[in-house]
Amino acid sequence: MTRIAAVHGALPPHRHTQREITDLVARICLPDGTDRRVLDRLHHSARVNTRHMSLPLERYAALDGFGAVNDAFIDGAVSLGAAAVSGALATAGLAPRDVDLLMFTSVTGIAAPSIDARLVGRLGLRPDVKRLPVFGLGCVAGAAGIARLHDYLLGRPDDVAVLLSVELCTLTFQRDDASMANLIASALFGDGAAAVVACGARRTPPRGPTTAAGPTVVATRSHLYPDTEHVMGWDVTSSGFRVVLDASVPDVVRKNLAGDVDAFLADHGLRRADITTWVSHPGGPKVLEAVAESLDLADDALDLTWRSLAEVGNLSSASVLHVLRDTLAERRPPPGTPGLLLAMGPGFCSELVLLRW
Question: Which of 14, 170, 274, 287 lies in disulfide reach of 283, CB 3.0 to 4.6 Å?
Answer without folding.
Answer: 287
